[in-house]
Amino acid sequence: MDPSFGGPCQGIRNSTPELELLGCVNEIVCLDAPVAQYLDDEDLTVHALGQARGSWARHPDLIPWLRQNLSRFDVVIIHGLWQYASYAVTKVMRQLRGRSPSAKLPRVYVMPHGMLDPWFQNDPSRRVKAWRNWIYWKLIEHRTISNAESLLFTCQKELELARLPFRPYRPKQEINVGYGVANPPTESLSMKRAFAESCPHFIDQPYLLFLSRLHPKKGVDLLIQAYARWVKQETIGEKIPTLIIAGPTDSDYAHAMQRLAASHELLGEQNSPSREPRIIFSGMLQGDAKWGAFYGCEAFVLPSHQENFGIAIVEALACCKPVLISDQVNICTEIAQDGAGLVCPDTLDGTTALLNQWQAKSPEQRALMGQAAKDCFENHFRIKTAAKSLLDAISRDPKLNPSRA
């Protein structure tokens, strides 16, 4: 449930309260330290068994917990693949069926969250990981898929792409349940203050916002290089907006991106008004600071090489902010059709085109695009709609009335 790990855990936080309102009681078992600070304010029922160990995210207490507790539930949803949790659920279900074939056991569903996207197998920088995944699929993970009652997808494009990279691929059923976020909190002065405190080097002026993990698939390098090109085109009287890059900065990749920005002389110099930063790495923003960043930006930008859904994209739409995204974002079709943003290829030229096209928009066109962004959110990505769709999907068996998941 560590928020720095990205979308799936935030999706659980978004959907669970809505499922509860529909009468579906939820419990979450996760491999986090029970004393983790990010669990302190959780309103959800969370069983944190201890910090996961190693790249497989293993913990010795998970299988015993599952053996003791699985029979309490009507439905189990595995969020994500390739780690110990999916293996553990599949193993325990097989053991419980073997011991008592007539025992009441939950129906198991899998929500891949984009982890079956072919990009992960095709990207040249991931050749070793691609071979590892292929072997793991053949030995273990295909059983997770074939034994599940259904795979649950966040959008139609994710469902279709999941069919491409692996064989055998034999899910019993595939369901596009959709995905969404809650309505954002109302904009307030406290949000603006929180953002300013989290980003002390920022002077109040127009800015574009990148808010996501700093990871190679997010296209951060393309964005920095395209922005450097954009700044060189700056003319007197038409200042280029600042670029805020919001995400954890403690990884090797994040450090490399900071060096890349510095190599283009975009980080500025402290105590030098003439060399103010054009790019600011704010670190991870949460709570009021995050919403302050969304509400204050001109537009949200994310030139991903692969994006399953993009919770931050939808949060920006909900705040009436146009989104500048690549055509590798799985919900780009809905956004383009609704006029809620701009879409270009996930290349340096494509990302440069995104920025240039935004600059060419008049204030009136930008305002209309902002309203279209809000309409796009309301039409496609409301969490109430997605939660109802999810509950309908896991309730399709007339013998089942899931009250605990």
Automatic annotation (TrEMBL):
A GO MF label: D-inositol-3-phosphate glycosyltransferase activity
Sequence ranges assigned to domain Glycosyl transferase family in this UniProt record: 204-374
Enzyme nomenclature, EC number: 2.4.1.250
InterPro entries named in the record: Glyco_trans_1 (IPR001296), Glyco_trans_4-like_N (IPR028098), Glycosyltransferase_grp1 (IPR050194)
All residue ranges annotated as the Glycosyltransferase subfamily 4-like N-terminal domain in the record: 7-163
The keyword Translocase appears for this protein: no
Keywords, in A-Z order: Glycosyltransferase, Transferase
SUPFAM superfamilies listed in its UniProt record: UDP-Glycosyltransferase/glycogen phosphorylase
Name under which the protein is recorded: D-inositol-3-phosphate glycosyltransferase
Organism of provenance: Crateriforma conspicua
Gene name linked to the record: mshA_3
